[in-house]
Write a structure and sequence with these properties.
Helix-turn-helix protein, DNA binding, Lambda_DNA-bd_dom_sf, Cro/C1-type_HTH
């Protein structure tokens, strides 16, 4: 649910951001932009006029799906933005998952399955399916993030398929990829504050 809280909550003095989402104000804005009466908007959404009226009251609550529908009728859409106002995209649904079909931990970074950790190379597990990806815990994640130029998402299934094809079929490109991987790993190791590699494979 999106909670409207108090009507027209003033921006927070320290951050300049509104502390609450103004449901009523945005529903009213959508009706003004769309030139819609309450009755007309209700008919478009398959709701009662009283429901639309309730959305426009102080402290109104509305489901995200209904809010998106309200805004769409006025040519508007919901968006998530960061503190600079830059829109933040959702995590892609086709990102790689583990062997049980579960998402990898969202707060950690996932590496391709060909970047097998040294511990697994020296102590292979033949009782498990090949890993779909590898992730490391916060210490090494932070080391990698310190040397990467940009933030990276978990790879998608399509991206890993493309990488696998390049590594098998394009020697020159494969060499460049492996060299870049090696440089990144070496750079992350140099900024490692303490401890050892903390790799975990995808669960069986």
């Amino acid at each position: 649910m999106v909670d409207g809280g108090a009507a027209r909550v003033e921006p927070d003095g320290a951050t300049g951001r509104r502390a609450e989402f103004d449901v009523a104000g945005h529903v009213l804005r959508a009706r003004r932009r769309g030139d819609l009466s309450q009755r007309e908007l209700a008919a478009l959404l398959g709701l009662s006029q009283s429901t639309v009226n309730r959305y426009e009251q102080p402290g109104a609550e509305i489901g995200v799906r209904h809010l998106a529908q309200v805004l769409a009728e006025a040519g508007l859409r919901l968006a998530v933005v960061d503190e600079s106002g830059q829109e933040v995209e959702p995590v892609q649904d086709d990102e790689v998952r583990d062997n049980a079909g579960r998402r990898f931990p969202a707060h950690l970074d996932v590496l391709p399955p060909d970047q097998e950790p040294e511990q697994r190379i020296s102590r292979p597990r033949y009782d498990r399916s090949p890993a779909t990806g590898w992730y490391h815990h916060r210490v090494m994640r932070d080391c990698y993030r310190a040397v990467r130029a940009v933030e990276v998402d978990h790879p998608t299934v399509a991206e890993l398929a493309r990488r696998r094809w390049v590594l098998l079929s394009r020697p020159r490109e494969a060499r460049s990829i492996r060299m870049a991987d090696h440089r990144l790993r070496a750079a992350a190791a140099r900024v490692r504050a303490a401890g050892r590699w903390a790799w975990m494979p995808s669960p069986p």
